[in-house]
Structure formats: C-alpha cells, structure tokens
Amino acid sequence: MDPLALASDLAREAGALLLEHRGTALDIREKAQRGDLVTAADRASEALIAARLRAAFPRSSILGEEGTAHRGESDERWIVDPLDGTTNYAHGYPLYCVSIAYERGGEMLAGVVYAPELDELYAAQRGSGAACNGERIVVSATGRVADALVCTGFMPAGYERNAAAFAALSRRAQAVRRDGAAALDLAFTAIGRFDAFWEFDLHPWDVAAGALLVREAGGAVSAIDGSPFDVERPSVLATNGLVHREMLASLSVP
User: Comparing 131-135, 177-181, 218-222, which segment has the lowest mean pLDDT?
Assistant: First the structure.
C-alpha cells in the first residue's frame, strides 16, 4: 500500500477515535516533566496506529511517543505521535493533532498531520508538494519579522531556557503564539497561518511529518542554530524561507 495513503487513512481513523474519547474518563497522567501529560486517548490512538502499521508493513520499524518501539527488518521506519497537544486535548482546547511520518533509508518520504477538531488533513510526499484536504498549500509571503505571526512552544519547566528567545521575538515580531502542539504548528507554517515556528526540546515524532510539510510547501527548515535540520536533534526553526535569516538572528540571543 502507498505509505502516504496509509498514513492519511490512519490519521483520520485515529482522529475519529480521539473525538470519541472526548468527555470520557481520560485517565490523565503526568510524565517526567510538569505539564507533560498522557491520557488513555493517547495510548488508544497509538495502539490503533501501531497495529495497522504492523499489519500493512510488517518489516518496518515503528517509533511512537507513547512507548511503541518496534524494530523491523527493513530500512523503513514509521514515526508516530498519536496525540500531539495532549494538554490542549485534556482541557477541551481544539488545537491538537495526529502526526505520522514514513522514512526509508534515512530519508523522510511522506508525512501526515491531521487536526480532528478542524477536520484538516495535511499531507506531503517528498518532491510532490504539500496539501490540506487535497488542495495544494504554500507558505506565506511575509518578508520581514516585524510583519510576521510567529509561534513557539515549551513546557512550564523549560521557561528559563526559552525566555530570552521568547522575549526577543515578542519585541520584534507582529505577534507570538504558543499553542502547544508542535506538529500542528508546523502544519500551520506550511499553510501560511504562521510565518515561522521554533522550538528547542523536541523529539522525532514532534517534527518528522511537519518538517516535511513545510519544505514541500516551499518553506525552510533548520536547527535553531542554523545548522542542517536533523529529525533526531532536539531543535527546529521552520519558516516561509523569506524570514529565515532574520529569525536566526533574532534567536541568537545570549
């Protein structure tokens, strides 16, 4: 089966499951950091996705946020965030998503981000562009940070690490948002709602699909220090390309 088609179907199926779990007993628990939550919905979504992936691609590896770490026999890997924005979800705030990416031979080839409350399915295939609900999308045309709506994210415990950059962009950008779902923030950058997104302490499942979306929509992606983006590294700066250099300078704060 085509990986992008499978990821799209699975993201919608998992999104429907998340919608069904709203208003039920979510069994909300906190992970190692304050504010880093996991719910029964996260676990159910990941179990559904992992089971379908193992059935369709039995030789592939799977890396999931909630503990799925299946080592396959091929050079294919699926990277899954079954519910990005768990805190939002737990509070009824509608900005959360399912993120699924497909990698082969170390190259990210397909990625999907689905926002159930918005019914928006973002999909990208390497070299083929990006789309939302089947319609091609491109990044914004904003040319300077002073006119830009930018976004970031961090846990409460990470405020001190992020404070300087947050303050710098709050002074320079038109506005700053902190929505708490990195994969969806990247999708919003790909479609041009945000002109830039940055975040320091991330994992592969937070960025694998979203970074591909931004690049295929015509944007730029790097590490926050300007070095090449690597899904295994903990930081990302994604922009429309036009403000990338200025964002790098703005984030180079003591």
Answer: 177-181
Parent domain of 167 = 145-251
Q: Which two tokens stand for residue 248?
A: 């790098």
Q: Any idea what the CATH number is for the domain that residue 181 is in?
A: 3.40.190.80
Q: Which amino acid is at 64?
A: G
Mean pLDDT confidence for 8-29:
81
Token pair for 88 = 């939002």
CA distances to 22, 94, 187, 196 from 248, rounded to whole Å, are: 39, 30, 20, 11
Across-strand partners of 49? none
Residue 226 to residue 105: CA distance in whole angstroms: 24
Of 172, 155, 153, 170, nearest to 237 by C-alpha is 153
What would the pLDDT profile of 111-152 be if each residue is shown by its tens digit?
999 999 999 999 999 999 999 999 999 999 999 999 999 999
To the question of pTM greater than 0.85 for the whole model, the response is yes
* CATH code for the domain of 103: 3.30.540.10
